[in-house]
Amino acid sequence: MKITVVGAGNVGATVAQRLVDRELANEVVLVDVVEGLPQGKGLDMLESSPVLGSDVKVVGANSYDETANSDIVVITAGIARKPGMSRDDLLATNAGILKSVTGQVAGRSPKSIIIVVSNPLDVMAYVALKVSGFDRTRVIGMAGVLDTARFRTFIASELSVSVEDVQAFVLGGHGDSMVPLVRYTSVAGIPLSELMTADKIEKLVKRTRDGGAEIVSLLKTGSAYYAPSASVVQMVEAIVKDKKRILPASVYLKGEYGMSDVVIGVPVKLGRNGMEQVIEIKLTASEKMELEKSADDVKVNMLKVKFD
Known about the structure:
By secondary structure, the chain is an alpha/beta fold.
C-alpha cells in the first residue's frame, strides 16, 4: 500500500505521521511546493521509526513523480483560514490549487482513491472529481467524520461520559449549514433527547457548526489539524483494511436523498474500493429541509468554479 499526502503543512504532516505511527502503508510520500519542507519533515518522521517500531518508508518530495502508482492520495494543499474568514472565502485560491494538484496526482496514479481535506471541503471534492475524471466512488471529501467528532466531543464533555459511548451523525455541507442529526444521536444507545434539554442540545449543535471557527479564533495564525488529521486516518484505515465502516463523508450524489449534481456529507460505506455505498437513512420533513438547504449552499459555490 502506497499513500501520498499532498501538502506538508500542519494537516498534511500530521496525517503522514499518523499513517506512519499506525503502519497503514508500506510507503508514505509527502509532497509540497516548498523546497526542503517535505524532505525535512519526511526525514524527521523516518527517524522516529526505530522508536515507534514502524517500518514504513517515508519520502519527502517537491515533484509529483514520486507519487506514481499511489493507492490513496490525501489532498490537504491550500491556504488555511484566518480569524474572520469563512471556509467559502478560500474558494478561488484553493480551487486553483486543487485543479493543479488533482491533475498531477490523477495522471500518475489513475487507479487511486482521492480523499480531499482542503476547504471549502465539499466544493474542493467536486473540483477533484471533475478534474480527475474518476468515478465518484474514488473521490471522497473528509468533513462528516470531523464534524461528527466535534459533536461527539461536546456531548461527552457536557454529560461527563466517554466519547466512545457517544454515537452521532453530522451530514450536509462542511459549513454553517451542516446538519447534526440529533434524532440519530445516542449515548450507549440512549437517545440524546432523554439525557439533555432541547436548549442544551441546540447550544451544542451551534458549537459544532462553529467548531472550526472557534479553533481559528484561538490559534489566530492557523486552523485545526489534530482532529482533521485523525478523521482522515480513520477514513484511510477503513479503506486500507476493507473495514466497511459506515461514516459520514462528502460524496457526489446521483439521486440519493432526492438530490443530484451536488457533493455533500451523507453516511457512506467505506471499504477497499472507496465509497462502496451511500446509506440512505429516513429523515423527517424538517431534517430533509435542512439537508436540502445545506446542499443549496454548496451548489452556490460549486457554480462559482469554472473549468476550462
